[in-house]
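Reading group handout, session on sequence-to-structure problems. Before we discuss, look at one worked example. The prompt was deliberately terse, the way you'd type it at a terminal:

> structure AraC family transcriptional regulator

The input record follows.
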Amino acid sequence: MHTVAVLLIEPVIGFDATIAPTCFGKADDADGNPLYEVVTCSVDGGPVTSTNGYSIVPQSDASVLARADTVVVPGTKCPQARSVGELPDDLRAALGSIRPDARLVSICTGAFILAAAGLLDGRPVTTHWQAGADLARMHPSVSLVEHVLYVDDGDVLTSAGVAAGVDLCLHIIRTDHGTAAAARVARYCVLPPVREGTHPQFVDRPIPSRGEGSTSDVRRWAAENPAENLSVDRLARQCGMSARTFNRRFREETGQTPGSWVQRLRLDHARELLERTDLPIETVAERSGLGTAASLRVHLRRDTGMPPAMYRRAFAAAV
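And the output record:
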């Protein structure tokens, strides 16, 4: 059985520490047989203090890393790794015992640990949006990918903060064992639908006031009317801006282009209709602004790996 070792590093971010054990621990096949052996560990096998103040007792010491097929490093505020990009000697030695062919996974600031060990050199990676600049500064040999939920570089996978770690674990399960296995985990955990790695991180950005030319009103209108013509020219006219100014302001406020934002808006609306209604697929496509059932199928399969009918079966019961 595929062994997943979850390395807890003090002070571990409490929520992050639970993600991999929950997702991989609940992954099973159609007959209910577990798909992974999940082992939590610390360097010495002792309790690990979390950022919330409570202690987590792992199942093993770091010796499990030598046999693990996948090693997951949850987010941590390890002082040396986060402030100067270095590691304690015992932690560095533990990471050195990982098999060369093992899959490496970091959640949130766990990327700082793998980077400090030299395991991310030359790799595209991501981390929590608040920590990205520090990661790039401390480890210029890594290629930081900003504004995404996770990055899959084959045997090295990294996620942004908090819930993005869930998305990454579901992505791994889907890659290893198919859409149905990942959907069962999502439904068990009553999780939102699977998001692709390129989905943007939701970052609070300063929104200019209406007098400064904010696009917030037109975004609110678009969210309520996804089937309308949402071209840049029309949205810009509604804001009283030129298309060029609108594009610039929109990116400043959302971190996305208007086209990408509209596409995501429409796809999210379609997914909500699939989850909460029994409307025909063609009607869902029309009401969401995606046009046709064929267009909806293409975009939904690209985003979730599932066609509309399968998506509805997988997630309608989880609402």
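Points for discussion. First: The chain has two domains: 2-188, 206-319. Second: Residues 274 and 280 are 9 Å apart (CA to CA).
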